[in-house]
């Protein structure tokens, strides 16, 4: 499949007989396919758009599903990404590929029925990839932060990979917060109002999480997309926590794990100013290709609005349930009251 600027070469839309409009962080996107199963999984991952929004689709995703072309190695090693200018290619080996035209906001691809059959892999390696790559073209910031919600107010938990966003956000969800996201949160500003959005992705927990969450003891960790050994489960069904799809951001907590040799409990909290918050968030946001660099001013405006919210710095170590108990009290009083 070859893409020209703004055009998918070949009449692929003609065979994509199933279609619907779904929401990607509040933006209407048109999905077209020849597979009812693909549409079913996409509809569960991306929420339906209200009728007025659905009338003005901002992106088009056309994916066809075909039989596996040949024997291939385990698809956990895929996708492999390549990009140039406005184009991005996600290669799934013999299971197919997906092309992105970021300037035209068009996605087109062909995938095997084997990928569709592996629901967990399809969500995290196809649908999540579509959301993450397409987001900047829609004026949406993909923020490397977990997010939990109470009374419609969202608390962002920002930290580099490996610090503990997933375990802390899950521990807060088990204390009654709604879980919106454990890793990537999408930020928009509709009608001059900040909003955060999540997707129906699996939560990724490192092997030592079984000591904190006994529900994992019956499972075995597996190799994730980045090569790490981890547990990947649907947090809302597996742990029975409440799901939030979108909310109004009320504050940010910047997490940092203390360097200690034992499992000693440490919890130090301090305030973070606007400049510190902006520097931390910018360090976790990927550079945008030149083809959509016009979104930079909008991105800067979004980040500045976000960094004006109350923010805290937390240095911690120890059991995530204990850390979450402290955060629960402090953030409920200071941020989500």
CATH class of the largest domain: Alpha Beta
Largest sheet: 9 strands, mixed
Q: In angstroms, what separates the terminal alpha carbons? A: 52 Å
Radius of gyration: 20 Å
Q: Give the uncertain stretches in residue-range form.
A: 1-10
Chain oligomer state: single chain
Shape: globular
Structural class: alpha+beta
Number of helices: 9
Number of domains: 2
CATH architecture level-2 label of the largest domain: 3-Layer(aba) Sandwich
Order of helices and strands: EEEEHHEEEEEHHEEEHEEEEEEHEEHHEH
Number of DSSP strand runs = 21
Q: Looking at CATH, which topology of the largest domain would you report?
A: Rossmann fold
Proportion in β-strands: 25-35%
Roughly what is the average pLDDT, rounded to an integer? Answer: 86
Structure description:
With 337 residues, the protein is α+β, with helices and mostly antiparallel strands. It folds into 2 domains: 3-138, no CATH class; 141-334, Rossmann fold. Helices cover 25% and strands 34% of the residues. It contains 9 helices and 21 strands. Strand 1 (3-4) and strand 2 (7-8) form a beta hairpin. Helix 5 (165-173) packs across helix 9. The model is unreliable at 1-10 (pLDDT under 50).
What does the secondary structure layout of this molecule look like, with pairings?
Elements: E1 3-4, E2 7-8, E3 18-24, E4 27-33, H1 36-45, H2 51-54, E5 59-66, E6 80-84, E7 87-91, E8 96-101, E9 106-112, H3 113-117, H4 119-134, E10 141-143, E11 145-150, E12 153-158, H5 165-173, E13 178-181, E14 185-190, E15 193-197, E16 203-205, E17 222-223, E18 229-233, H6 235-238, E19 246-257, E20 266-271, H7 274-282, H8 296-307, E21 311-317, H9 320-334
Parallel strand pairs: 4-5, 5-9, 12-19, 19-21
Antiparallel strand pairs: 1-2, 3-4, 6-7, 7-8, 8-9, 10-14, 11-12, 11-13, 14-15, 15-19, 16-18, 17-18, 20-21
Helix pairs in contact: 5-9
């Amino acid at each position: 499949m070859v893409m020209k600027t703004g055009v998918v070469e070949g009449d692929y839309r003609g065979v994509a007989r199933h279609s619907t409009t779904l929401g990607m962080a509040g933006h209407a996107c048109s999905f077209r396919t020849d597979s009812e199963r693909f549409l079913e999984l996409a509809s569960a991952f991306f929420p339906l758009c209200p009728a007025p929004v659905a009338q003005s689709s901002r992106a088009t995703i056309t994916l066809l599903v075909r039989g596996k072309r040949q024997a291939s190695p385990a698809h956990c090693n895929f996708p492999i990404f390549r990009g140039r200018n406005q184009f991005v290619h996600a290669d799934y080996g013999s299971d197919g590929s997906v092309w992105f035209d970021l300037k035209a906001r068009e996605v087109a691809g062909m995938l095997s029925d084997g990928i569709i059959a592996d629901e967990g892999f399809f969500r995290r390696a196809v649908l999540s990839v579509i959301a993450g790559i397409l987001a900047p073209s829609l004026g949406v910031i993909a923020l490397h932060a977990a997010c939990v919600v109470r009374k419609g107010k969202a608390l962002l938990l920002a930290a580099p990979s490996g610090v503990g966003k997933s375990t802390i956000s899950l521990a807060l969800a088990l204390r009654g917060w709604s879980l919106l996201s454990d890793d990537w949160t999408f930020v928009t500003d509709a009608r001059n109002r900040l909003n955060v959005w999540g997707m129906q992705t699996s939560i990724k927990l490192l092997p030592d999480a079984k000591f904190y969450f006994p529900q994992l003891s019956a499972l075995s960790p597996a190799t994730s997309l980045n090569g790490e050994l981890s547990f990947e489960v649907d947090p809302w069904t597996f742990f029975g926590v409440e799901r939030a799809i979108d909310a109004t951001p009320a504050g940010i907590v910047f997490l940092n794990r203390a360097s200690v040799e034992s499992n000693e409990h440490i919890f130090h909290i301090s305030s973070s100013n606007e400049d510190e918050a902006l520097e931390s968030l910018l360090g976790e946001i990927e550079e945008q290709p030149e083809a959509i660099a016009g979104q930079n001013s909008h991105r800067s405006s979004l980040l500045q609005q976000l960094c004006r919210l109350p923010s805290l710095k937390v240095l911690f170590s120890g059991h995530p349930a204990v850390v979450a108990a402290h955060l629960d009290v402090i953030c409920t009083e200071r941020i989500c009251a």
